[in-house]
Amino acid sequence: MAIKTISSREVYRNPWTRVREDVIERANGKRGIYGVVDKDPACIVIPLEVGAEGEFVYLIEQFRYTVGARHWEFPQGGWELAEVVPEELARGELLEETGLTAERMTLLSTLQIAYGVMNQMQHVFLAEGLTMGKPDPDAEESDLVVKRVSVLELEAMILHGTIVDNCSVATWGLYRLWRERRELDLRR
């Protein structure tokens, strides 16, 4: 390893987050510190509808305290558990935040969120065959707004900076690559 951990101490903990400070030694022998945020696994879901009218996705808007503003994003979150079944987590978050259930869930990939400061993986799912039900948001999600938008509108929101959540933007890019490869494979 290029960096060796000399010592580690937890400096903060709550039900969602753990913060630790590690004394490290680099390959060149120089010591330093790393502040690390540890979070349990999360998921993000693209709820996709394809029909005669075109392609649509569901987004949620909520107030994000850390940036002091409301923003649009794909449904996402975690259960504050170190061990989760990714598809169960994705189905649970989708239902909780949007009221949607899906016939099919496809795991597209697992990404790391902000790995320069945080240790949290995020499972990326495509949800298809959607049925609308009643959302059941957590107490801190009571202000969620659900919106169905066309794929063209979604991409315009990304390009115009209306969607600034890096996880949502990365998820959409991943989906587009996955779909393009799948279409190429079907043509062969």
Can you describe what's shown?
The protein is 23% helix and 48% strand. The protein has 188 residues and is α+β, with helices and mostly antiparallel strands. The chain has 2 domains: 3-38, no CATH class; 42-187, Nucleoside Triphosphate Pyrophosphohydrolase (Alpha-Beta Complex), CATH 3.90.79.10. The strands form 2 sheets. Strands 4, 5, 6, 7, 8, 10 and 11 form a 7-stranded mixed sheet that branches. It has a 4-stranded mixed sheet with strand order 1-2-3-9, with no helix packed on it. The mean pLDDT is 94.
Write the layout of secondary structure elements.
Blueprint: E1 3-13, E2 18-26, E3 31-38, E4 42-51, E5 54-64, E6 69-73, E7 76-78, H1 86-98, E8 100-112, E9 118-119, E10 121-132, E11 145-150, H2 151-159, H3 166-187
Parallel strand pairs: 3-9, 4-10
Antiparallel strand pairs: 1-2, 2-3, 4-5, 4-7, 5-6, 5-11, 8-10
The CATH topology of the largest domain corresponds to Nucleoside Triphosphate Pyrophosphohydrolase
User: DSSP strand (E) fraction?
Assistant: over 45%
Q: How large, in whole angstroms, is the Cα Rg?
A: 19 Å
Largest beta-sheet characterization:
7 strands, mixed
C-alpha geometry: globular
Query: Any guess at the CATH architecture of the largest domain?
Result: Alpha-Beta Complex
Q: What's the CATH class of the largest domain, please?
A: Alpha Beta
| Total number of domains | 2
Counting DSSP H or I runs of 4 or more residues, the number of helices is: 3
> What is the N-to-C order of secondary-structure elements (H for helix, E for strand)?
EEEEEEEHEEEEHH
The low-confidence runs, each spanning 5 or more residues with pLDDT under 50, are none
CATH superfamily of the largest domain: Nucleoside Triphosphate Pyrophosphohydrolase
Cofactor: Mg(2+)
Family: Belongs to the Nudix hydrolase family. NudK subfamily.
Keywords: Hydrolase
Catalytic activity: GDP-alpha-D-mannose + H2O = alpha-D-mannose 1-phosphate + GMP + 2 H(+)
